[in-house]
Specification:
Elements: E1 3-11, E2 20-25, H1 28-38, E3 47-52, E4 92-103, E5 109-125, E6 132-137, H2 146-164, H3 182-192, H4 197-204, H5 209-229
Parallel strand pairs: 1-3
Antiparallel strand pairs: 1-6, 2-5, 3-4, 4-5, 5-6
Helix pairs in contact: 2-3, 2-5, 3-5
């Protein structure tokens, strides 16, 4: 088994291969990570691993608070993740390649990265200025009937988009705007749907593309049916997520 050790960036969100991740980095542990990545040779990828937080806080408390208003906030690379950080994270994550790492005058960073490859988190090291993880790359297997399933998912996704748009006159993705490669379809739809973190995590760790597409097809049909009965809909941008506060 071939493994790799990379900086670890836990988030309250799930990153999928091929999806863009904008970050506003202000905590010292992650600023140290970005300073290290900035020293990577220009022709080499600036890689780190994103894992979704199962139990903990993306941003560590910076001032005394509940339940003890006098207690000092926790510091260090594992702050907010308990005595054993590995237990605080989902084990399947995604490698991110930082195309842009720009340091601002105040020492914070503006980062734009893209998800590349799924990985399994084997262990976490909190001995340095930021968390690192030992990771095993996970291959993306197509599974049975992935192509046909992708076509069905795209049809259902367009209906889902139209329902979210409330049948108003607005620009919706057409067949020319959406990919047709099954694994790309599966990740795009997983990222674009309005789902909670556990459900998105389940889609990320599906054993193969076909399994992910089957799950998405059920979710799309169920969500579209629910939306059809709602009197009003929240505004939503289907292809973008908010910039992480960290």
């Amino acid at each position: 088994m071939t493994t790799v050790r990379l900086p670890l960036f836990p988030l309250n969100s799930v990153l999928f291969p091929g999806l863009v991740l904008p970050l506003n980095v202000f905590e010292e542990r992650y600023r140290a990570m970005m300073r290290a990545l900035s020293k990577t040779p220009e022709d080499d990828p600036r890689r780190f691993a994103v894992v979704a937080i199962r139990d903990g806080h993306e941003v560590a408390p910076s001032a005394p608070g509940m339940p003890d208003p006098t207690s000092l906030p926790e510091r260090g690379p594992a702050a907010g993740f308990g005595a054993d950080p590995a237990k605080a994270f989902h084990r399947i994550g995604c490698v991110a390649d930082a195309a842009t790492v720009r340091e601002r005058a105040d020492g914070t960073f503006e980062v734009l990265a893209t998800g590349t490859t799924r990985v399994r988190l084997l262990s976490v090291d909190a001995s340095g200025p930021y968390l690192t993880g030992e990771l095993e790359e996970l291959p993306e297997e197509p599974g049975d009937e992935a192509g046909a399933l992708a076509e069905g998912v795209l049809r259902s996704f367009r209906q889902y988009q139209k329902r979210l748009a409330g049948a108003r006159e607005r620009s919706l993705a057409t067949g020319g705007d959406l990919p047709d490669e099954p694994s790309v379809v599966s990740y795009l739809v997983a990222a674009a749907m309005m789902l909670d973190i556990p459900t998105k995590q389940r889609l990320l760790q599906a054993p193969d593309t076909a399994s992910r597409l089957r799950d998405e097809l059920k979710l799309l049909r169920a969500e579209t049916a629910i939306i059809r009965t709602l009197p009003s809909l929240p505004a939503a941008e289907l292809t973008r997520g908010p910039t992480s506060l960290n």
